[in-house]
């Protein structure tokens, strides 16, 4: 399946400001009069709220039955394995890329309870979701729909907060080189027990601190491959503090269901971002046959 022509896909995004930016990275819209595309979605450093008004759109975890093929919305927490998506015909999706901790304040449901599933918005928000989807469908343009969605988010996040040490923990794990015992070091810096840190991470991020470190390492490696596809696997292994190439390949395959070499080959041939997705780092969508 060949990727669609770039001009056939209309993309729009908004960067939140003020208090909303503490919970949301980006609000986006993708629309195409006709689009036939399938592929693999790699794990991102975002939870997500997504709305589908397409003729046909499906998304599911690897090996699961197709889900969300009709109009509606769903949510997902941080993923640790790839998912598959497919769209045919008229395509219109809108979504919210949440900060890693953004799901629990939005839904009042601990993030770990979402598991690796794509959970129906109706099940989470109950009656509150119907007026929102109706207002979005009645809006005259994608820009107006994003404004409607942003107002909903502002209302949901009003007076919400997360523990201050969670921001520090995230920044610490992102900027520090990986090493054995990094989570124990973080607990010592924060002066809290590992049990308390793990409970907070699972509640807000849906992952343990150790799982989150693995996701950070995967995303850092994926970003490096996307931006510098001519780097050797040996360079990537040691730049990202893996013990050896075997450990690097094992972690990458666990998250992407492909080797870093296969991921690199895609970028060596494409030399461009993938179509129709509003990533904030490297592309997280690999078209089938791309």
UniProtKB/TrEMBL annotation:
GO terms for molecular function: DNA-binding transcription factor activity; sequence-specific DNA binding. The keyword Transcription applies. Keywords: DNA-binding, Transcription, Transcription regulation. InterPro entries: AraC_XylS_family_regulators, DUF6597, Homeodomain-like_sf, HTH_AraC. PROSITE patterns: HTH_ARAC_FAMILY_2. Residues 167-266 form the HTH araC/xylS-type domain. It comes from the Bacteria. This is HTH araC/xylS-type domain-containing protein. It comes from Fibrisoma limi BUZ 3. The lineage of its organism: Bacteria, Pseudomonadati, Bacteroidota, Cytophagia, Cytophagales.
